[in-house]
Amino acid sequence: MQRVESVKALRAQVKAWRQQGETIAFVPTMGNLHAGHLSLVAKARELADKVIVSIFVNPLQFDDKSDLSAYPRTLDADIEQLTSVVCDLVFTPTVEVMYPQGMDSHTKVVVPDMDDKLCGQNRPGHFDGVATVVSKLFNMVQADVAVFGDKDFQQLLLIKKLALDLNLAVEVIGGPTFREPNGLAMSSRNQYLTTEQFAQAASLYQVLSAVKAQLEQANTNYHQLESEAVSQLTEAGFVVDYVEIRRAQDLEIATKADHNLRILAAAQLGKARLIDNIACNLA
């Protein structure tokens, strides 16, 4: 596995692979890798001849400077983990490589109709930072396919819309959410949880699953289901940002006529802001 830090070295290797007729899959990450990330790398391997993983903690998508400074950085351990799967190249740029002119006046990419709801509403500017860095990485890597996790479902849809709207020559694919034995979605932020909070955090998936069960039993009082879920999570010790039932294809507010749904939640538990979602197909 190669490790490169410059765009020039990255492009040189991509060019060499292209000349050999190789296809390329790309998995962007912010590091602190876990089994969920590695599953995305494995999926990427199924889709292309060569796999590139990037590790970059993107300052532009953090609306809270203390959150940025606290975000776990485990580069050596991440690279060691990547040697356990078939990863051909890891791209580890610095902030100076990604934003050589600085970030204050940097061109930003905004994806409308996806950045103003749910996590976009609760984290102003976050998705602009995501869209901007992903656009840059897509242009640097020039992959055939890129793989993102379903756990960050709003982000996945935003990036799919970005690629479609800008006619980017990359297919964006989602990979399934990996969970801890207690049902908690794997996340780099889980390590902010104490042992007690880790056990409490299982309630998030349990509550979403209960909402899904109600929907499958033809309960169409979405507002009531959402309110009850918020109350249950609050009682479990969470500070809830939202629990919402949305239309899966675009995350617009679901109506009784919609059958392909997504139940999404975000809530704070201790120092960790946790997000999760599950699919619910009523067709």
Tags for this model:
alpha/beta; 283 residues; Pantoate--beta-alanine Ligase, Chain: A,domain 2; six-stranded parallel β-sheet; three-stranded antiparallel β-sheet; 9 strands; 2 domains; Rossmann fold
Low-confidence stretches: none
The fold-level CATH name of the largest domain is Rossmann fold
Strands, count: 9
> Looking at this structure, what is the CATH superfamily of the largest domain?
HUPs
Outline type: globular
Structure summarized in a few sentences:
This protein has helices spanning 7-19, 35-47, 65-70, 75-82, 95-98, 119-122, 126-141, 153-165, 195-200, 202-216, 222-235, and strands at 2-4, 24-29, 50-55, 89-91, 145-149, 171-175, 239-247, 260-269, 272-281. By secondary structure, the chain is α/β, with parallel strands linked by helices.
